[in-house]
Amino acid sequence: MKKNAIIVMMLVCAFSWGSVFPLAKVVLQDMSGLSLSIWRFAIAVSSLLVFMYITKKRIVSLSLTQYLALAVIGSIGIGGLNFALFSGLEHTSATNGALIMALSPIVTALLAAIVDQTSLRKLQLCQLGIALSGVLLVITKGDLNSLINLTINRGDVTILIGMLAWSCYTVCASKVSHWLAPLEFSLITMAMGLTTLLIISLFRAEVTPWESFITLPNFSLASLIYIGVFGTVVGYLCWNSGVKAFGSAKASLYFNLVPVFAALVSALMGQAVSAIQLMGMCVVLTGLMMPTLLRFINTKYAAVTASKIKS
């Protein structure tokens, strides 16, 4: 697949995940976070199974060890992240949660460097730093006091664990993605993540996924279906394709666009977006486009230098 096509897929992924946040806030008024996670992946797994049945696709046969590895990756990266994220948000603010998840690209890049026994390039570090600063502007709306007065509680620690689980998922996915096509890889890991969430729900008497589902208002139901299909199936397929093509460190840079698109979708839903947040979005895009910008500048500089030499 061509590089430009993968970039478009990563942008679609970031938009799909970013759009989930404002819609999830609507659904969370009518069901618990764990119930939302269960239905999100139940819809996603069902959609993928129907698609594979219609297109007559089959999962490639793997060894028992490979299936167990995928089971662990899905349970930790999908089940672990979603359970930790929504459980953590019950005890901390959305701002704290977003700030912690914003560390994911850096942690992913560091984990990838450790696993591959390589060091991060200066350009990568610059990209990560610029993109993170833009994300902080979007999330904090330029109010540094929200960072200075940040307090750590149980919810923050829980979300931190979820963020680490997601970073591990991304790094592991880059190592085993060659076993399967992105569609099959997404289906198996989602199914294992869903299984993990269902097992957890058995020990949470207050969680009633079915009762919550059948009483959902129409808009919340439509939002849940959107989250399951576009925000999960499309998002994860694009993400896993990007990780397979770019590697975990480079692909994780696009995760910085998630809060950017979340803010834009929130604005479309009537929430105000400040000038400082728009500035932060531009900073994030600058960080992502840095290699392209540097190549453009170098090309122009080389052309100007060559013309001067000829003259």
UniProtKB/TrEMBL annotation:
<dbReference type="InterPro" id="IPR037185">
    <property type="entry name" value="EmrE-like"/>
</dbReference>
<feature type="transmembrane region" description="Helical">
    <location>
        <begin position="219"/>
        <end position="239"/>
    </location>
</feature>
<feature type="domain" description="EamA">
    <location>
        <begin position="154"/>
        <end position="290"/>
    </location>
</feature>
<dbReference type="Pfam" id="PF00892">
    <property type="entry name" value="EamA"/>
</dbReference>
<feature type="transmembrane region" description="Helical">
    <location>
        <begin position="67"/>
        <end position="86"/>
    </location>
</feature>
<feature type="transmembrane region" description="Helical">
    <location>
        <begin position="123"/>
        <end position="140"/>
    </location>
</feature>
<feature type="transmembrane region" description="Helical">
    <location>
        <begin position="152"/>
        <end position="173"/>
    </location>
</feature>
<keyword id="KW-0472">Membrane</keyword>
<comment type="similarity">
    <text>Belongs to the EamA transporter family.</text>
</comment>
<feature type="transmembrane region" description="Helical">
    <location>
        <begin position="38"/>
        <end position="55"/>
    </location>
</feature>
<keyword id="KW-0812">Transmembrane</keyword>
<dbReference type="InterPro" id="IPR000620">
    <property type="entry name" value="EamA_dom"/>
</dbReference>
<keyword id="KW-1133">Transmembrane helix</keyword>
<feature type="domain" description="EamA">
    <location>
        <begin position="6"/>
        <end position="139"/>
    </location>
</feature>
<feature type="transmembrane region" description="Helical">
    <location>
        <begin position="275"/>
        <end position="294"/>
    </location>
</feature>
<feature type="transmembrane region" description="Helical">
    <location>
        <begin position="185"/>
        <end position="207"/>
    </location>
</feature>
<dbReference type="GO" id="GO:0016020">
    <property type="term" value="C:membrane"/>
</dbReference>
<feature type="transmembrane region" description="Helical">
    <location>
        <begin position="98"/>
        <end position="116"/>
    </location>
</feature>
<dbReference type="InterPro" id="IPR050638">
    <property type="entry name" value="AA-Vitamin_Transporters"/>
</dbReference>
<feature type="transmembrane region" description="Helical">
    <location>
        <begin position="251"/>
        <end position="269"/>
    </location>
</feature>
<protein>
    <recommendedName>
        <fullName>EamA domain-containing protein</fullName>
    </recommendedName>
</protein>
